[in-house]
Amino acid sequence: MTLSSIANPDLAILYDNQPRWNLPDHRRRGFHNFHTTARYAMSLRAPRSLPLRKQIDWTIGDRPDVARFLAMPHFSAFVVVRDQRILYERYAPDFGPDRPHPIMSITKTTLNLMLGRAVADGLVNLDDQVRKYIPEIGTGYAEATIKAVADMNIANDFTEDYTNADTTARRRDSIGLRLPPEGQKEETDRSFICGITGGDLTNHTGHALYKSTNSDVLGWIIERASGRALRDWLIEIVEAAGLEGCFHITCDREGVPLVGGGACLSARDLARYGLLFARKGEGIDGRRVGDAAFIEDTRRN
Known about the structure:
Layout: E1 13-15, E2 18-19, H1 27-32, H2 34-37, E3 41-44, E4 53-54, H3 59-62, H4 64-70, E5 77-82, E6 85-91, E7 101-102, H5 109-120, H6 146-150, H7 189-194, H8 212-226, H9 230-241, E8 247-250, E9 263-265, H10 267-278, H11 292-300
Parallel strand pairs: 4-6
Antiparallel strand pairs: 1-2, 3-8, 5-6, 7-9, 8-9
Helix pairs in contact: 5-8, 5-11, 9-10
């Protein structure tokens, strides 16, 4: 006897080329549980955490711009931290200080720390073409310089326009946030990236061409150049930040972390992570990540 099955209801495509978890009636629950929504994920946790103490400045909540933000229907959490002091925090009734939330493309900032370190150590040259590090990559990235990729300054056939139901980004089944079409084999994310095509990669538009796959290409380059798995790089960042809760990150079916937008963590831990940049890479207990000059150059740019 063969037992029948149905497509996972949360991940099956319903309409507008979207899975159920990302449709209006389900999106808030999907985002509040994003770390369990994805088919594949890993969790990292620091052995020692940065202690935070409350020293509330109630005038922050009285500011009209802050009050307007806190009243928005999609509000979940708001934390203001300076040094090791929580100056203000608020949470929605269905959320809280220990709940992880996806930080989406803020995840890309991990690449500043990783790429900055790789450049400072002479492992990566920003003027090199991508194919030097990933010779098997497709025409959408092969001839582009690493700097152009990092600056979102290349043109290829991948599109990320979420107002368009048919944008390439919504058909990226390889990251485990939706099921592939019936009968189609699920591919790995790097095979998906290798399939991106392009001709003249020069950006002639005069504005940035935002593509999350650029960031995942950078992660692949860092892994190749350093000989170290992205997981190891991320562990160093989590431990330097002194995160108290888990750093969850979406992966593909081979376990490759989605550094272009897959991380989830609590608001307080996001603040701890942000403090790494305020301190230009200085972490807890003498740990250091990234490169101070690279962080400062990025800020100026």
